[in-house]
Amino acid sequence: MTAREIFEGIRKKDRLALSKGVTLVESLRDEDRSQALELIGLCHREAMQSRRIAISGSPGVGKSTFIESFGLSFVGKGESVAVLAIDPTSSISKGSILGDKTRMEELSRSELAFIRPSPNREEAGGLGISSYEISILCEAAGYDYILIETVGVGQSEIAARYLCDLFILILQPGAGDELQSIKRGIVEIADLFVVNKYDGSFREQAEKTRLRFLAEATRDEVSTREVILYSSIRHYGLEAVATFIEGFYEGKNLRDLTKRRDAYWLSKKLEKGIVELCLKRHRQEIDRIISMIEQGVDDPFPLVRDFLTDLDTASNR
Amino acid sequence: MTAREIFEGIRKKDRLALSKGVTLVESLRDEDRSQALELIGLCHREAMQSRRIAISGSPGVGKSTFIESFGLSFVGKGESVAVLAIDPTSSISKGSILGDKTRMEELSRSELAFIRPSPNREEAGGLGISSYEISILCEAAGYDYILIETVGVGQSEIAARYLCDLFILILQPGAGDELQSIKRGIVEIADLFVVNKYDGSFREQAEKTRLRFLAEATRDEVSTREVILYSSIRHYGLEAVATFIEGFYEGKNLRDLTKRRDAYWLSKKLEKGIVELCLKRHRQEIDRIISMIEQGVDDPFPLVRDFLTDLDTASNR
Fold it and tell me: Which residues, 6+ apart, have CB-to-CB distance to A316 below 8 Å?
């Protein structure tokens, strides 16, 4: 299939074509890159109408069940949902963590849903330029919502922040000071806190956690952040989340959000491309210096410093 | 103090001078860089005799108490120990996670110990080129052991692997499949597994965890990895760990380990320097393209692609 054919399929909301497109964009093979770029370009020209929501939280906090119940509520209203589950991979074994566990089973059966685990091997935290490119394909397919699930490990959250309009942090009832301090950066970028598992024996703890995070949410006076109690089992809190989202998008221009996002990710892409070219250009010299160091030099630091000084001088000429 | 004066202090094992040196190396100020490089160069010329051990594990697993009891056992034998505790910082708040918690109190009172939390703000996972440079300062100060504590979050473990000779992974009794799968990459690079908290009500669980990881340790036939039960409270397992370490270093040439380490980190340093220069050289063009994208272009991807193609062509001429 050519990029044009895949694009036509995507425009018709053909999920198989979308899957093929995602695979093409994720491909690390050089020969796929120009096709991938053509496809992304075609998709990007389409109007951007998707609402993009990041869903983050520590492992075990119930992100998948939240996304499933949350996604089903959209689907129930006739709205379509694309879910990109970012799957960080071990840098050694290249093995997938989520593995082939079946997740979001009910949601995945809906015609209105597209679920794609994205084993992005290039980027730290699993979320990177190709996630951005994949999200453009989903936009072109006309999904009303793009939900991006990230594992709460810091770096990927910053990327998710730039990939999405809205950032939801899922919390465990009883999540205490330890979590709070470790996830400080994530707490700060979240637009909405959802305390999950507000059911059964967790209810009281969930309420306590809500109060704790309410203090976070209202710390700066201009903040419009909220803390919502949620239970996937009892279908509790769904409406509050939906209302928050509506309020969030009110008066916001999706086109402006798109431009800001493009600027961020394309500057990343540009920088990455420049870096690759530069390193390629200097590869031989790097290898020569490193092999000298491997053979053993008393003080290898000046070798590195002098090379960089010369390079700087040359580029300023 | 000049780099030379700091160096003289370090050679005399003056911990205040070592602290000053570390601060100098960690400094992000341009004007400190040449002094820092001079200091590192002076230190690197000294014989490298330290044994470098990475200690990793999930938060709460007891890394600090392990290091304290382990460090005290060296100090008890008259051996000196430098502890570098890597402190990942939030990329948003720039706040320190470990904060000002007093840790390793008893060890820190020993004349033979130097403990330094290293809030490295530059690198993902907290462990990077400056950690390597700091370790060189500790070597020049003649520490018998350099213990590098890292929080088990993936990326920093790879860096720790290249910073140290030996990698110890501390485990929680009852650490199950979830931990195993998440830490797959870390499990693979560990030379030694230590199941901590082998005391009180945890004993049975610790034994089960030992058996589970024993399978990991002996998976490949050539492996010389081990699983040791440990209790800081009962001083149990210390000797087994010490014996493992002796065995590990037997027949190994520290000079060779140093050369390999230098080659890795200096190639990182070289690449980082080249990348910074390249981005600086092209900053204006990057900014011009990004501002075009911010103003809104239907298909911004060709802008990026064409720029990179031109750059590639120009560099091949």
Answer: none
